[in-house]
Amino acid sequence: MTSPLTPHLDADRIAAVEADAVDPAVAAEARAHLETCPECRAVLDRVVAVREQLGALPPERMPAGVWRRMEGALGSAATQSTVLPMNGRGLAGSRWRRPGVAALAAAAAVVALVAAVVVGANRSDNSARPAAGPDGVTGVGPGFATPQSTPTAFATLTSGHTYTADPRHNQQLLRELLQHSTSVPGNTSGVKPQVAPPLQAFLASPQPALTCDERLTAGGDRVQAPIVVDLAQFTDPAHHLRNAPVLVIVVPTDNPNVDWAYIVGPKCATAPDNDLKQLVTVPVPH
Amino acid sequence: MAGSRDDDTQTGEARPDATRPDDSGVDDATLLSRHVAGDRDAFTTLVERHRDRLWRVALRTLGNPDDAADAVQEALLSAYRGAQAFRGDAAVTTWLHRIVVNACLDLARRRAVRPTVPLDEQLHASGVDPHGASETAADLLAALRQLPAEQAAAVVLVDAEGMPVAEVAIVLGVPVGTVKSRCARARGRLAVLLSPPAPPPGPGNPAASPGVQPNVAGDPGGDGTGGTP
Description:
- The complex is a heterodimer.
- In chain A, about 35% of the residues lie in helices and about 15% in strands.
- Chain A contains eight helices and eight strands.
- In chain A, strand 5 and strand 6 form a beta hairpin.
- In chain A, helix 2 packs across helix 3.
- Chain A is rod-shaped.
- By secondary structure, chain B is mainly alpha-helical.
């Protein structure tokens, strides 16, 4: 057909020249060929056209059905477990630490068992609940001095419930717990809970409880006075945990339809930053 | 909910998204931080802002909606669970794109979704004239499916989504030169796939069509070795 002075360029090379992605010497040689070769110039035209056509593709949107599927997947992820750092502060400041997920998981299993369960709670009984302090940092129990020296009368129960890795099971226990705690508002003065030895230190001073609360709620405006604290157990064969002593700390959230319950090990307040929580969400029944 | 807003930001930066009234001016990084802190709705809100872009990238990289949905779902769950690993040194959108593209590339490898039948044969078999006067978007998408997924992702991000090459380099986790190289390969291949019919090769003229020429001046190296300065 044509008789260019040099062999035809392949389309990749032509596109690379067009994209300014080759050495200048190579580009010069290629351009010299293009000057003499209408076929290769046609390919170059095609390359330019392809770029333009890609840019002119219609702005498709995610189909509604696909979005519903995504919402469902994210929702069910929330009802399963999410590994989150206990000290998750804002992104704007220091960088996020990047602890290895595997190490985190191991720490979760061995060091501190911390499961957060978002509990649907009937907020019609809100008036019976203790209010959080102005800064919310009032999470201490009966017998604890509060920073505002205002005794906070949240319930401390000893349910003896055995929580597991199953969020639905925990949900049910927590619903029962909340029903019980609201039926006995303020409770527990006079009740000596059977505190498992590992938890005694935790309860001996308000500071660990406060620190734990702050850690659980990631600080800031989410630190809330607990609604109820329960002494319970946790069994998870997958992590070789059997009847491990745990505290269940239920705190209000800014969502009137949702409480959070943290199931924490005794090292909640003292474990280093690799402490974990599992976030489990529960839709509020209406 | 679907299609209720235009997220067609071409810069890859989150800023234009952050001013939408329905999001109360909360920027992406704040939403992600709220998610990590336990806000149940923050992540969905974040994803909703960018879902269309993420969808387009997945769809055009993988070439079919089923695989795209699988990849995006896997990516979103991965991002949901791994949000604490986000470092503030890149835009949240860049991070999201990276996770989605990685999921697409993984899926492409696992399923070998790239068809092996040449485009022309596909189109001829379906009765479509591949060289008709109008090259539709469908032709272009069909041609994209012929590319290796790595190339398709690069050219989709750069040319279709208008993402800066430097950001695409972050998304793909490769040097800028590699992005350019992949894009060039992709455009070259697409140009061939979408080119008008070549004259039938006569005896002794097997290379009449540019599209079937031997790679006389080709880059023998892999991505990123194509002489990029």
